[in-house]
Amino acid sequence: MSDSNSNDRFFFLTGLPGLEVVHAWLSIPLCAMYGASLAGNSLILWMVRSETLLDQPMYYFLSMLAVSDLGLSASTLPTMIIIYMLGLRQVAKGVCLAQLFFIHTFSIMESSVLLTMAFDCFVAISSPLCCDTILTNTQVASLEWAIVVRSIGLLIPAPIMLKKLPYCQNPLLSHSYCLYPDVMKLACADTHINSAYRFFVVLSTVGVDSVLIVLSYGLILQTVLSITSKAECLKALNTCVSRICAMLLFYIPLIGLSMIHRFGKRTFPSILVLLSYLHFLTPPVLNPVVYTVKTKKICRMMLQLFRY
Question: Which residue has the higher pLDDT, 176 or 298?
Answer without folding.
Answer: 176
